[in-house]
Amino acid sequence: MNDKKLMEYARLVAGVGINVQKGQMVLINCPVECADFGRCLTTAAYDLGARDVIVNWSDDAVSREHWLRAEDSVFDAVYPWDILRNKTLAEAGMGRISVDASDPENLLGVDAERLQRWDVANGRDNREFYRSMMANGFPWCVVSVPSLKWAKKVFPELDAQQAVDKLWDAIFAAVRVTGDASAVKAWQDHCKHLETLCSKLNSLRLTQLHYTNALGTDVVVGLPEEHLWLGGADTSKAGVRFVANMPTEEIFSAPQRDAVDGVICASKPLALNGNLVEGIRLTLEKGRIVGIHADKGEDVLRRAIETDEGSHYLGEVALVPVNSPIAQSGLLFYNTLFDENAACHFAFGEAYPACVKGGDDLPLETLKARGINAESSTHVDFMVGTDDLSVIGTMQDGREVVILKDGRFAL
Ligand code: ZN
Ligand code: ZN
To answer: Which of 187, 266, 307, 369 has the fewest CB atoms within 10 Å of its CB?
Structure first.
């Protein structure tokens, strides 16, 4: 990895990811192992005129100790000062960058019940904050840089330094950073391409999608009448364009909460709460997940789906072709930010309000009436795309249209 590319990446995240505005507060969540990148992000944010940059450092080893050894009651409530910080910064319209580089199995062996209780407590105590984030109340961006254990998980055959270098190469390719300062332009073009795809799908006014493949997925996903397909950049409440995930290759919408029926088989392992869940098979009836199976990590998956009533329903339907650049790398990243952008996916839990027309400004009850899964404290993506996936859409007049054939867009 070279310094020039690292700084270009940081400038891309600060400038396009959260699109820092003069006088804006910036919060960066960053692992200590990736301090170099955290420092570059800080410089880039100040260069763009940030009022102040607050870095919230984390560490896998410390976090593992916390999960294994903190007193049990700690997992039932968020500390008031953390709630206050989130709330204050959200109201101030901060830009929030999260650097995700954890060992995908950092919390292996931690009591799944603790993880679930924390999910419930965090969702409840930070509800306003997460709701504001889901409704684009402030710009936010999730990115990744390599950490040693994560790199070794992706490239187990390589020695440590080689694995980290290889993961850097894969990440730079995925986020279009080449070191020649062309990344910002590349992202503008890329977002335009995704927006064109969305327009095409939106003009079809689909009522449902039917997914099938040889892995066993056979599911009909209803779409709300006023659903919208989104992709590329989002717009914050203050009217600032930002990109919530880098990379992003998806176009996505929200399913009709009570109109998903069939079986969904995941096509990749899912890194969930520091555990790997493999061989997922979910059965849905009238939108509700009624059957949960995983070959590995079933307990962690079950606890996540049982977080609250809303987490039993799907909140996202996302299309990513198998010829997307990340999919073509052929790598399994064990990190949702990358794996979800290499395959079609769904999420269980809360939907993004913007997936229905004008949704960011609608109250909860109206969002529910529009048919999306508007209330859950969780949102977990899991991958279903394969190179034989067929997705057939139905239009309002009953005509069918092939959306994906053999995992590729047929539009
Ligand atoms: Zn997604
Ligand atoms: Zn998602």
So the answer is: 369
